[in-house]
Amino acid sequence: MRKNIVLAFFASVLSVSAIAQDLKTFGKSFELQKPVAAKELGKMKKSQLSDVQVEAEVVSVCQAAGCWMKVKLENGETMRVTFKDYGFFVPKDLAGSKIYFKGKAEITETSVSDLKHYAADAGKSKSEIDAITEPTKEMAFVADGVLVPSR
């Protein structure tokens, strides 16, 4: 029994190490430890959201510079992830990729001007941009670092 526990422990350490070796870092590097699924963020206490590691699937990335991305939440909803102090950017072709990021999640209100800016970055048409007339309140994330699996 004891031998099985020790073997299971080493197998889990090796699998985490294998994942970590195949990750490219953008922004501040961090050691991947028990990331939560993005869809779980809305269920967490506010005090748990200030330094959290998240695993998510990328839906879209800013096509102007890679300065933000949207990741899947529940029920087709998405969350915008920006990068602390615009200190780094991510590759523009991450849509569909599973990634990891660390930082702070919060409910924010996004202004109409910011929404229009994001829509322009995403390549939306002028009519789609002009149709944005109300701010939105949504979960947002400011990442200190992003880990992307090597492709």
- Identify low-pLDDT runs: 2-19
Q: What would you call the shape?
A: globular
Strand line-up of the largest beta sheet: 3-4-5-7-6
Helix-strand sequence: HEEEEEEHHE
**β-strand amount:** 35-45%
Q: What is the count of distinct domains?
A: 1
> For this structure, what is the CATH class?
Mainly Beta
Compute the number of strand runs.
Answer: 7
CATH topology: OB fold (Dihydrolipoamide Acetyltransferase, E2P)
In terms of quaternary structure, the protein is single chain
Largest sheet: 5 strands, mixed, barrel
- The residue fraction in helices comes out at 10-25%
CATH architecture: Beta Barrel
How confident overall, as mean pLDDT?
Answer: 86
Secondary-structure blueprint:
Layout: H1 2-21, E1 23-27, E2 36-37, E3 52-61, E4 68-72, E5 78-83, E6 98-110, H2 112-121, H3 126-130, E7 136-149
Parallel strand pairs: 2-3, 5-7
Antiparallel strand pairs: 1-7, 3-4, 3-6, 4-5, 6-7
Kindly summarize this structure in a few lines.
With 151 residues, the chain is of the alpha+beta class. The chain is built from 3 helices and 7 strands.
Could you explain the architecture of this structure?
The N and C termini lie far apart (39 Å). With 151 residues, the chain is of the alpha+beta class. The longest helix has 20 residues, at 2-21. The protein has helices at 2-21, 112-121, 126-130, and strands at 23-27, 36-37, 52-61, 68-72, 78-83, 98-110, 136-149. It has one domain: OB fold (Dihydrolipoamide Acetyltransferase, E2P). A 5-stranded mixed β-barrel has the order 3-4-5-7-6. The model is unreliable at 2-19 (pLDDT under 50). 19% of the residues are buried.
